[in-house]
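User: Run a structure prediction on this.
Assistant: Running it now.
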Amino acid sequence: MQLRRRLVVAVHGHALLKDKLEGLMAEFMTLVEQYRQARRGFDEEYPAVAGLFVLAGIAGSRPVVDDAIAQAGSRLDLRTTTRKVLNVTVPQFEAQPHPGGGYSLLDTPLELDEATQRMAAFLPRLLELAGQEHAVWLLMDEIERTRRRVNALEYIMIPQLRQTVRAIQAKLDENERGNIVRLMKIKDMRVREERQRKRG
C-alpha cells in the first residue's frame, strides 16, 4: 500500500514537473527573444560609443583625455528588484546615472563631451542587458534541473515502483492461491474423515 501511494505521488509529481517544464520553456523563449533584441541594439550602438572615446583620444592629447575621464567619473545608483518565474528568482536592474565632477572644456576635445554623454545614456541599457543575460542563465539552469527530475521520475523511479508493485502483487496472488489450495485440501481431508466415521 505504501508503494502504491508512493507511485501515485510520483505520477502526480511527474505531471506537475512536466507542466512546470513547459511553462519554463515558454518563459525562456520569450526571455531569449527579448535578450536577442537588446543584444542586437547593444552590438549596434556600443562600437559607436566606444569609437567616440577613440576619436577623443585622437583629437586631443591622450593624457589630457585620460585625466578628464577620471575627473568626470559619474555615480550610478543601482536598484535591484526581483521577480518570480515559476519559483525561479530573476533579478532586474535599474540604473540612474548622476553626473560626476566636471573637466576643463578648454583642454579637452569636443568629441569627449559627446562620448561621455552617450556613455551615460548607454550604461542603463548595458545593465538591463546584463540582467536579461543573467535571467536567461538562471532559467537555463532551472530548466536543466527540472528536465533531470522529470526524466528521473519517468524513466527510473516510476518504472521501478510499478515493477516492485507488480512483483509484490504477484507474490501476494501466489500466496493467496497457495492458501486456497491448502484450504481445499483441509476441506477434502475433513470430508474423507467424516465419511470414514459414518462407515465405521
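The chain has a mean pLDDT of 84.
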